[in-house]
Amino acid sequence: xxxxxxxxxxxxxxxxxxxxxxxxxxxxxxxxxxxxxxxxxxxxxxxxxxxxxxxxxxxxxxxxxxxxxxxxxxxxxxxxxxxxxxxxxxxxxxxxxxxxxxxxxxxxxxxxxxxxxxxxxxxxxxxxxxxxxxxxxxxxxxxxxxxxxxxxxxxxxxxxxxxxxxxxxxxxxxxxxxxxxxxxxxxxxxxxxxxxxxxxxxxxxxxxxxxxxxxxxxxxxxxxxxxxxxxxxxxxxxxxxxxxxxxxxxxxxxxxxxxxxxxxxxx
Length: 267
Prior knowledge:
Elements: H1 7-21, H2 29-36, H3 42-58, H4 64-77, H5 83-93, H6 97-102, H7 108-133, H8 140-143, H9 152-155, H10 159-169, H11 176-179, H12 202-208, H13 228-237, H14 241-266
Helix pairs in contact: 1-2, 3-7, 10-14
């Protein structure tokens, strides 16, 4: 049935998006959609289905596609699931059941625009509900409030800097709270910073750890502990190109410094 989710197509879409962000395949899809401001390709499929439905309705009754449509509609009325059943369910699912009952609209282009907007609104609501309901996104939802492309995608040209920012935003960086997210409670000591007797989380990296004092930009200095969460959200949601570049530069340099220090300790 044409209106069923095309998982393979959407998997290719998400694969391309994750390659663009240079993140692993297991990165949560909601985050990928959020960073790029993307919507599922299935929305375009739904619109094409409704366009074709309008074409069928306007066809001459003598044409076979029109006759086949009315046959399928009769089967649907008898409880037999088919393509027509999917069109009806699609319209009803987004509040346009009256369009099905009327078997068409007078202004198709206006309806298609409204139909597309309704589909995107439904997805946006589902996306936000998923972000707000899972502990996996507990930090992400503090600064990601709208499903739209992020400013850093245009502001940062150096791939290595952008990668460092993306990985911290999505919770997939090398800091211990990210690496050990799914460890058991009796293994929480693994989350401690390699250089300080504190938990190595986003706030510790950006505002506290003395290992990075020499490279920490002014936007991350002299932040009171009770203001760290607010300041971190401001940094991650900033639209100022200068602030975005400074943050990305710091995260890349801190990652390099941390890696060298940890490798030296290991030797």
